[in-house]
Amino acid sequence: MAIQQKYRREEVSEVSCCLKYIIFSFNVLFWMFGLSVMAVGVWAWTEKNAFNNLSKLTHIALDPAFALILIGGITFIIGFTGCIGALRENTCLLGSYAVLLAVILVLELTAGVLTFVFKDSIKSQATEGLQTFIVHYREDPDQQNLIDWIQEDWLQCCGIKGPEDWDLNNYFNCSSQKVGSREACGVPFSCCKRKLNEIVENKQCGYDVRKEGFTDDVGKRVDLIINEKGCLQSGEEWLERNMLFIATVCLISAFCKILGICFAQNLRADIFAQKGKWH
Description:
The structure is a single chain. The protein has helices spanning 2-11, 17-47, 64-87, 91-117, 119-135, 141-154, 231-241, 243-278. It has 279 residues and is mostly helical.
């Protein structure tokens, strides 16, 4: 009788070994990635002393550091439930993992449909978000770095609809020259067109470019110095050019989530089946 009991214990000692370690391996990566992203977000908030002065966070939803903490936290939780659930053969954690993936999948599909249906409203929201970035450009280093990256590296643009939008910022407003702002009637350096083989970036290239009749020291016109196209138009053009790539990434992401849900549910079913055999 003891021999038979030992045989049955060995028979159920492994539950879908291949499936178990596939889920475990992938989710270890997501777990570590989420932890890293969240750590960067927390570090960015610490550098801004945001934890001690939460009154500064008037536009927390637009704070890049907060976005990193949120994305990292969600990724960490999903990776944790999938990783530990598979390793410990915990049906509760595996079920939570499948539910979380399903919720995110539904939210992504809903967001895609709403983006297509309410694109004008979303365009308006994007405009308001960019206006907030411009107004608080010098107040939050994370927002400043983000808009510099958008204007200089990603879209090669300036302002929302054009350089004149920088009048929204107190430092770049043309009236600020009365109080001695050197940046008055100018734009950030990220609006400037890149020069070939430029080693040291000229941080003052945007000074005075919005003054009437402005030309630089060698007689160049404004349109040869800065990008005059607004970021909203440049963003729409970028989306049109990369629509196939974006659609492909979305489909791959959705397929991976569906695969993760199926794997988790199959592993749960195997665990329940093995427990039934044991009893």
